[in-house]
Write the C-alpha cells for this entry.
Amino acid sequence: AQSVAQPEDQVNVAEGNPLTVKCTYSVSGNPYLFWYVQYPNRGLQFLLKYITGDNLVKGSYGFEAEFNKSQTSFHLKKPSALVSDSALYFCAVRVSYSGAGSYQLTFGKGTKLSVIP
Amino acid sequence: EAGVAQSPRYKIIEKRQSVAFWCNPISGHATLYWYQQILGQGPKLLIQFQNNGVVDDSQLPKDRFSAERLKGVDSTLKIQPAKLEDSAVYLCASSLGSGGYQETQYFGPGTRLLVL
C-alpha cells in the first residue's frame, strides 16, 4: 500500500538547538514528497517539496529536508529552532490511485513540534 | 498574490441539518481540492476538480456530500444531512495543475464545522 508515516506524535526541542521531524514513505515508483506546517486555526502552509534532483531540499523559514531513497525517508530539519516554529507538521506523498496519470496527496497524521524557550 | 479564500470560518449546526462551504482558489489555478481534517489526523482528500470537471471523488460520501465547481473557478461543498462524525475542519486547496512542479497545493484557512 502507498502511504506515509510520521512515527513521532510530538517532538520537543530547546530554542537554538537543531530540530528533526521524521517522515518515512512507501510508494511505487519515484516519490513526490512534501512538507506542510499548520499553525492553530490556520490552513496548511507549504514548506518544501522533493520531486527530483538534489537530495537536500531547502524551503521556507530556514527549513530543509533530506531525501534518502535507501531508507525511504524524508526528514525535515532546521539548524536552529525558534519558539515561533512551534506548530503541527505534516509530511505528504503523492500516490497514484486509479489509472495512469491519476494522483493524490496522502498525508501523515502530523507531528506536533514544541520549541521550548 | 491573494491566497485561497474560504467561508465561513466556523459553523455550528445540529445533526440532520444542511451546511455549505465556499472556496475561491488562487487566480489561475486549474485544480481545486476539498479535504476533511478530523482532529488529530492529517487531511483526507474528498474531491478533486480539474477546471470544472471532477478528477476524483472516490472518498466523498456521496449519500450526503456534494460539491460543484460550475464555472471552473470557485467551488461549494455541501453536506446534507449532517452527522455527528462530520465534525471536522474542511480545507480547500488549489494548484496550477496536476503534474510535476505544478502540483504544489496551497491551502485556505479552512472551515471548522461542529455538528451537535
Summary: The CA atoms of residues 33 and 50 of chain A lie 5 Å apart. The first strand of chain A starts at residue 3 and ends at 5.
